[in-house]
UniProtKB/TrEMBL annotation:
<dbReference type="GO" id="GO:0106292">
    <property type="term" value="F:superoxide-generating NADPH oxidase activity"/>
</dbReference>
<dbReference type="GO" id="GO:0009916">
    <property type="term" value="F:alternative oxidase activity"/>
</dbReference>
<keyword id="KW-0813">Transport</keyword>
<feature type="region of interest" description="Disordered">
    <location>
        <begin position="69"/>
        <end position="94"/>
    </location>
</feature>
<keyword id="KW-0679">Respiratory chain</keyword>
<dbReference type="InterPro" id="IPR038659">
    <property type="entry name" value="AOX_sf"/>
</dbReference>
<protein>
    <recommendedName>
        <fullName>Ubiquinol oxidase</fullName>
        <ecNumber>1.10.3.11</ecNumber>
    </recommendedName>
</protein>
<keyword id="KW-0809">Transit peptide</keyword>
<keyword id="KW-0408">Iron</keyword>
<keyword id="KW-0479">Metal-binding</keyword>
<comment type="similarity">
    <text>Belongs to the alternative oxidase family.</text>
</comment>
<dbReference type="GO" id="GO:0098803">
    <property type="term" value="C:respiratory chain complex"/>
</dbReference>
<keyword id="KW-0560">Oxidoreductase</keyword>
<dbReference type="InterPro" id="IPR002680">
    <property type="entry name" value="AOX"/>
</dbReference>
<dbReference type="Pfam" id="PF01786">
    <property type="entry name" value="AOX"/>
</dbReference>
<comment type="subunit">
    <text>Homodimer; disulfide-linked.</text>
</comment>
<dbReference type="GO" id="GO:0102721">
    <property type="term" value="F:ubiquinol:oxygen oxidoreductase activity"/>
</dbReference>
Length: 351
């Protein structure tokens, strides 16, 4: 017994400095010790080339971009794996569940719930971005053109409405969906130009960057809602590509040359939008357009009660357009008074 212990001690002493990998320790067996002794004996013939379990062979882990070893999983992730729900994200925008992207950088989508405890399934907007539309706003307000630029802006809008009426006729659902692809452009263009101006001059914007971007996002949500009501045809999609490209560049140049003219144009565009949605409501009321149940995205975005219909959706969207009308006419009036937008606080959250 003493000789075998001494032999084991003599054998393990040289191996005491070998770094071991993190994991369960391997205890040498009698066969391993015998094999190692044979390797140390010069007179013994060389053993065949076989894989050896002791000492273990290992290499350092590679560290390269997103293929590196992931960070230690949290307790919640471990519990999710046990429950079989790991790698899943909430069902968003009414589509099927998608696999969550495993990222080396630890970025993961937020998981939210509604007030009633149900899962929040929309990824294009969050619960704190929802609101109840102000339906008490005056829909009859109109800016009477007095200056040359005002008259030019009104005539430009009237000229743009003429081909739209011919193309869409009284198909107000398709008309609204297509026009929202254009209505979301001015707020984004104005916000970007004000953002760049703020950077160039090292100055605040008075909140107008956020106000205009809020307008653009709100118009985009109108489009996302009408996408649930009417699907565009291929030629209508092609029309969007052409009109959006022309309108974006024209409005970009117009805003650079005269912001007061650009905002006045949008103000008159919103007045025409109010008129179009009013005609939309008339067709719903007289039965020409079916009053379908409101899309789920509309119920959550405008906090509409269960059982709301398409008519309720058109009502809140028309109210949004009236608020956009006021904001852009107000911005144009600021420029007409020789001031800059930054001098007047922006109406943030004014939907």
């Amino acid at each position: 017994m003493m000789s075998s212990r001494l032999a084991g001690t003599a054998l393990c002493r040289p191996l005491s400095h070998v770094p071991l990998p993190h994991g369960p320790a391997l205890r040498p067996t009698a066969d391993m010790i015998t094999s190692s002794l044979l390797h140390r004996c010069p007179a013994a013939p060389a053993p065949p080339q076989t894989a050896s379990l002791w000492p273990p062979r290992f290499s350092l882990p590679r560290c390269a971009s997103t293929l590196s070893a992931p960070a230690q999983a949290s307790e919640e992730e471990k519990a999710a794996k046990k429950a079989g729900t790991a790698g899943k994200v909430p069902q968003g925008e009414g589509s099927a569940q998608q696999e969550a992207v495993v990222s080396y950088w630890g970025v993961s989508p937020s998981r939210l719930v509604k007030d009633d405890g149900s899962e929040w399934r929309w990824t294009c907007f969050k619960p704190w971005e929802t609101y109840q539309a102000d339906l008490s706003i005056d829909l009859q307000k109109h800016h009477a053109p007095t200056t040359f630029l005002d008259k030019l802006a009104l005539r430009t809008v009237k000229a743009l409405r003429w081909p739209t009426d011919i193309f869409f006729q009284r198909r107000y659902a398709c008309r609204a969906m297509m026009l929202e692809t254009v209505a979301a452009v001015p707020g984004m263009v104005g916000g970007v130009l004000l953002h760049l101006k703020s950077l160039r001059r090292f100055e605040h914007s008075g909140g107008w960057i956020k106000a205009l971007l809020e307008e653009a996002e709100n118009e985009r949500m109108h489009l996302m809602t009408f996408m649930e009501v009417a699907q565009p045809r291929w030629y209508e999609r092609a029309l969007v590509l052409a009109v959006q490209g022309v309108f974006f560049n024209a409005y970009f140049l117009g805003y650079l040359l005269s912001p007061k003219f650009a905002h006045r144009v949008v103000g008159y565009l919103e007045e025409e939008a109010i008129h179009s949605y009013t005609e939309f409501l008339k067709d719903i009321d007289r039965g020409a357009i079916e009053d379908l149940p409101a899309p789920a995205i509309a119920l959550d975005y405008w906090r509409l009660p269960q059982g709301s219909t398409l008519r309720d959706v058109v009502m809140v969207i028309r109210a949004d357009e009236a608020h956009h009308r006021d904001v852009n006419h107000f911005a144009s009036d600021i420029h007409y008074q020789g001031l800059e937008l930054k001098t007047t606080p922006a109406p943030l959250g004014y939907h």
